[in-house]
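Sequence design from tokenized structure. All designs in this work follow the same two-part layout: the structure record, then the generated sequence. An example of the structure record is given first.
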């Protein structure tokens, strides 16, 4: 009896494979969502097969018959609106239009020569294979030294982990802390990827609308007011993207106290440290050694494309994140890590400090210029390379406004919509990541259109 059963099972399996064979080009609609009439048809044919198959004890229903689609989280991850502006700006530039590019979130300077040289030397030495998941020991040591020299802090290498950009650090911290349904308080406006990292691990970014009253930052009082039963922590960036405001030691202390009082975690993104123009932003580690710090070689060190960052965390947390990094990344670019070591050399720091002075000069020109054009900038942007301007005098649709400024006047800016929901349609971000002559040209063009 076994022979025929196997034979018939194989026939039925072959029929099922034929019925479900891919037809022609993949139809994105057939994949997600499946059209209801197709779904009914597929289910009917599957039922028929199941009846026949059950004579032979074969249960097709145990095969996964659900329509194949994308996970629900995909719908919650929003695209960068600025991409539309950036793509159009690139097209216009390629067509010979003179565009002032003030939309990008990265330094316009190439990586400093000593870092590039160190990268070349690493390649020449054959540093082309995987390295440790937490980073090469020399770089963790150099970062520990950096905390000692810059902040007077003792941060052992064991508490530091090198990551693929600040983005990698954000992912690891989200994966470490968030259970499904947990919430993390964060500013609106703020860096949009933060809430998306939380979503990725089935948590949620709990957006707190912030404005001039708290200098676009979270405060102890805002933490108290917005904490919910599922909140497990609060996250800030200092200096922040898109507002450039930085937190003082006293403000960090108050924030830390509020979060601690609720038994939560404090996450501080210090990626724009080193690019502060009015005072040196303190590290949260000066007031709260248990806080999670996110940082990167992207901005101050001018290495956006090398994809290298780091995090500082309690030692036990690093051990757990190392386990995840082994799985998720195996290692960072080994060559990039050797290159980054040169970032701490005195000759490199001299170049980076010159660049910091150039950014300050740009900010000091652009801030009053933007204000005199009629934009409201209620708080001094103390760092990063952004000015977040209230454009409500001119528009209630920041995306359309940015596109029209680009099309008609050749000025590329970022719409506020990229940074959250709180009055986002009335705001724009100016990046001063282009030379003074270009900033002057942009202000001149805008003054013609807005006056
Ligand atoms: C506040 C903030 N955090 C993190 C990142 C991600 O940086 P990285 O290039 O190091 O991944 C950015 C990038 O713009 C940022 O502005």
């Amino acid at each position: 009896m076994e022979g025929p059963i196997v034979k018939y099972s194989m026939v039925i399996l072959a029929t099922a494979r034929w019925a479900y064979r891919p037809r022609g080009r993949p139809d994105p609609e057939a994949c997600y969502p499946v059209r209801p009439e197709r779904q009914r048809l597929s289910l009917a044919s599957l039922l028929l097969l199941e009846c026949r198959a059950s004579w032979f004890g074969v249960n097709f229903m145990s095969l996964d018959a659900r329509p194949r689609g994308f996970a629900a989280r995909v719908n919650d991850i929003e695209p960068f609106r600025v991409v539309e502006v950036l793509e159009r700006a690139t097209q216009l530039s390629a067509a010979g239009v003179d565009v002032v590019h003030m939309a990008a979130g990265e330094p316009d300077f190439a990586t400093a020569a000593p870092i590039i040289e160190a990268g070349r030397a690493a390649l020449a030495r054959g540093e082309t294979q995987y390295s440790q998941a937490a980073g090469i020991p020399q770089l963790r040591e150099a970062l520990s030294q950096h905390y000692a020299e810059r902040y007077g802090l003792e941060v052992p290498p064991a508490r530091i982990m090198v990551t693929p950009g600040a983005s990698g650090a954000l992912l690891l911290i989200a994966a470490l802390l968030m259970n499904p349904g947990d919430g993390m308080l964060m500013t609106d406006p703020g860096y949009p990827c933060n809430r998306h990292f939380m979503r990725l691990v089935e948590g949620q970014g709990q957006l707190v609308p912030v404005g001039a009253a708290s200098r676009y930052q979270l405060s102890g009082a805002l933490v108290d007011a917005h904490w919910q039963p599922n909140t497990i922590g609060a996250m800030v960036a200092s200096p922040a993207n898109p507002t450039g405001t930085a937190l003082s030691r006293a403000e960090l202390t108050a924030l830390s106290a509020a979060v601690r009082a609720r038994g939560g975690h404090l996450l501080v993104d210090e990626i724009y440290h080193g690019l502060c123009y009015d005072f040196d932003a303190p590290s949260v580690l000066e007031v709260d050694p248990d806080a999670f710090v996110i940082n990167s070689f992207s901005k101050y060190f001018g290495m956006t494309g090398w994809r290298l960052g780091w995090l500082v965390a309690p030692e036990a947390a690093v051990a757990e994140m190392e386990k995840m990094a082994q799985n998720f990344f195996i290692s960072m670019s080994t060559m990039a890590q050797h290159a980054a070591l040169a970032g701490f050399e005195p000759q490199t720091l001299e170049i980076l400090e010159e660049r910091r002075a150039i950014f300050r000069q740009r900010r000091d020109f652009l801030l009053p210029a933007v204000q005199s054009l009629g934009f409201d900038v209620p708080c001094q942007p103390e760092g990063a390379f952004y000015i977040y301007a209230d454009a409500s005098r001119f528009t209630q649709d920041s995306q359309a406004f940015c596109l029209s400024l680009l099309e008609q006047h050749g000025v590329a800016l970022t719409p506020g919509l990229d940074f959250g929901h709180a009055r986002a349609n009335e705001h724009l971000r100016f990046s001063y990541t282009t030379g003074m002559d270009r900033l002057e040209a942009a202000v001149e063009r805008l003054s013609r259109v807005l006056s």
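The pocket of pyridoxal-5'-phosphate is lined by residues 105, 165-167, 191, 237, 241, 269, 271, 296, 298, 304, 309 (CB under 6 Å). We note this feature because it recurs in several other targets discussed in the main text.
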